[in-house]
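yo

u said u wanted the structure for the complex thing, so here. seqs first:
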Amino acid sequence: MSTATDTQLLRVQAIRWQAQGICSYELVDPEGHALKPFEAGAHVDVHLPGGVVRSYSLAGDPSDTSHWLLGVLLEAKSRGGSSALHHKVRVGDLLQVGAARNAFPLASAAQHSILIAGGIGITPLKAMAHTLQAAGASFELHYCARSPGHVAFMKELQALVPQAHLHFHFDGGEPGKGLDIAGLLKVAAPNTHVYYCGPVGFMNACAQASEHWPQEAVHSEHFKAPEPKATDLPDGAFEVHLVKSGETIQVGPDQTIVRAIELTGRRVSTSCLSGLCGACKVEYVDGEVDHRDYILSDEEKTHCLTVCVSRAKGKTLSLNL
Ligand code: FES
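structre next:
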């Protein structure tokens, strides 16, 4: 959860129906001030009615500081976030919104970029398209959806991306009939970077299709945590030392580190609670970590962990808290 110091109250200036199940939300400063610039790929925490906090990618033009734009799909099994936005939030409401954070940045050195969106995964990629187009950079955008009626921001994308570089792929709900992702990524072209975002099955297909690409040229952002892999370690109990406070706490087999810390009366910043956003990133100073997140880079994993999902491989972990 974003802390009070890095959140701001923003007014919902417009809500637009974008596509089947998808609405966009335009957020502005209530006094009309410019908002802080953000980088393409960034997301923000939105504090919603009912006390839930959810992360949403910023879908607008990063160079336009007049408003922030969200695109939100009403999830059939909403845990409260998309349902609150779709059913409770109205034009004129004020929402507490966190600072923009970017865990899905564009690589500045790329000579060509391939953006692949699955459904609502278009939101961060649309922001990237704005940035790449403004820079005169070479890129192509592939947008996979069930049908034209499921495409959000259609008109904006058509105005933004040159026709030859904008590709819609409709599968009628059968992924096998849509974009041939393996074919698209068959050749790992030099100086080319791939970015993808979408639902779990789509993410798995993209990950598989890009396995032979250099790791640093492939970038992704998950909206939902994939099912646990069979190779994941079992959830054993372990002990956590909080180095700064000197406390030692027990983490049970069915408890997260966040929960165990909260039971001591302390607060840890959290948002997605699924290892997706990085809000709960904490430094560790000792112990071996079973990293279960989808956000930290390999370098970050050498000294940080996400305490909402990650665990200890051994009996103890020491955190810089
Ligand atoms: S709260 Fe989002 S990664 Fe932990």
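The mean pLDDT is 91. Residues 122-134 form the longest helix (13 residues).
cya
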